[in-house]
């Protein structure tokens, strides 16, 4: 079992290596792959030093699985080349997510759709993953008509440059900017680039990817995505209109019994999901679950998850685990 991590020196790549170690993923050879400027550097993994190699060298080594987190352009160019030699690519960029010939997978929801013929598998957007994990059991039991989501997203979703910008601003240092405005003590309603319709790409990902993962484009979804100066994870305020009425206690029990979801909902004792307590964990935390009295069959909830883990690295490695377990390589 040969596995390559493409983009191993990046923020998500580092977390992928950590998750591989934590979950004791079964491999015989590990290749850490990055751009030309990082080739030759060393990365330590479970006490062993690994030399960073380039994509050409990684291709020549013919890995069984290649997990990509190196940006959409790299994925568009290189994923097909790896797939052609029989490597199964799990891609964390947006490059293949809406390609109708590629599966968009959250393992707890739709890994059972995967076959040995799927050589490029798309990892969904971080904000989408945590939301659909909470929506899925509700859609199965009650049917979902409409979702209104507002996100409060960690700067780690932008990358190292954004983390550095926040640190610089906190210290009063002028440095490189990842954002067009200060992020310290601020909130930017601007995640990814704006489209002609006034929505950002991040907002449209929440719409389109939800439809694809839940296999139902009749669900009305609208989103506002906001970047805030936190590090631990993404938070989402989600309003859901269901087809059928519900009991709030039953909804809490249903969500808490869902694989990958943990209900933290005791507001009278100040217990609710927060990025600070979600950081470093793989669960999707759900709280503030309450009926929306303004609309029939509707409820509100607050969803928080570490965007670098379940929102990216952990989800990708769970896909790899499913492929190994079900002998789909």
Structure overview:
The chain is an alpha/beta fold. The protein has two domains: 2-124 and 312-325, NAD(P)-binding Rossmann-like Domain (Rossmann fold); 127-307, Dihydrodipicolinate Reductase, domain 2. 33% of the residues lie in helices and 23% in strands. It is built from ten helices and 14 strands. It has helices at 11-22, 55-60, 72-84, 107-110, 126-141, 160-171, 201-214, 248-256, 275-278, 309-325; strands at 2-6, 29-33, 42-45, 48-51, 65-68, 88-91, 103-104, 120-122, 144-153, 220-227, 234-242, 261-263, 284-291, 298-305. The strands form three sheets. A six-stranded parallel β-sheet has the order 2-1-5-6-8-7, with helices on both faces. Strands 10-9-11-14-13-12 form a six-stranded mixed β-sheet. The longest helix has 17 residues, at 309-325. The model has no long low-confidence stretch (mean pLDDT 97).
């Amino acid at each position: 079992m040969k596995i390559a991590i493409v983009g191993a020196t990046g923020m998500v790549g580092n977390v992928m290596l950590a998750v591989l170690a934590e979950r004791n993923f079964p491999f015989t050879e590990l290749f850490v792959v990055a751009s030309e400027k990082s080739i030759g550097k060393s990365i330590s993994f479970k006490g062993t030093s690994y030399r960073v190699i380039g994509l050409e060298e990684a291709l020549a080594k013919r890995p069984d699985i290649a997990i990509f987190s190196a940006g959409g352009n790299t994925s568009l160019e290189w994923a097909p080349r790896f797939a052609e030699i029989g490597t199964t690519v799990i891609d964390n960029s947006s490059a293949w997510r809406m390609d109708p010939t590629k599966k968009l997978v959250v393992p707890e929801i739709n890994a059972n759709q995967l076959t040995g013929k799927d050589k490029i598998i798309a990892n969904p957007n971080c904000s989408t993953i945590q939301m659909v994990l909470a929506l899925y059991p509700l859609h199965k039991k009650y049917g979902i008509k409409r979702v209104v989501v507002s996100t409060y997203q960690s700067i780690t979703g932008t990358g190292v440059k954004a983390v550095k910008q926040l640190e610089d601003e906190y210290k009063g240092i002028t440095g490189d900017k990842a954002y067009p405005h200060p992020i310290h003590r601020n909130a930017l309603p601007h995640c990814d680039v704006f489209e002609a319709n006034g929505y950002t790409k991040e907002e449209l990902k929440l719409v389109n990817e939800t439809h694809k993962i839940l296999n139902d484009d009749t669900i009305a979804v609208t989103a506002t995505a906001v970047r805030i100066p936190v590090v631990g994870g993404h938070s989402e305020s989600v309003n859901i209109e269901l087809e059928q009425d519900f009991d709030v206690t039953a909804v809490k029990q249903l969500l808490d019994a869902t694989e990958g979801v943990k209900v933290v909902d005791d507001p009278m004792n100040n217990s609710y999901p927060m990025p600070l307590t979600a950081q470093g964990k793989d669960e999707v935390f759900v709280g503030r679950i309450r009926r929306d009295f303004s609309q029939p069959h509707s409820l509100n909830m607050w969803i928080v998850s570490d965007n670098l883990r379940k929102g990216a690295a952990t989800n990708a490695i769970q896909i790899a685990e499913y492929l190994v377990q079900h002998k789909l390589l």
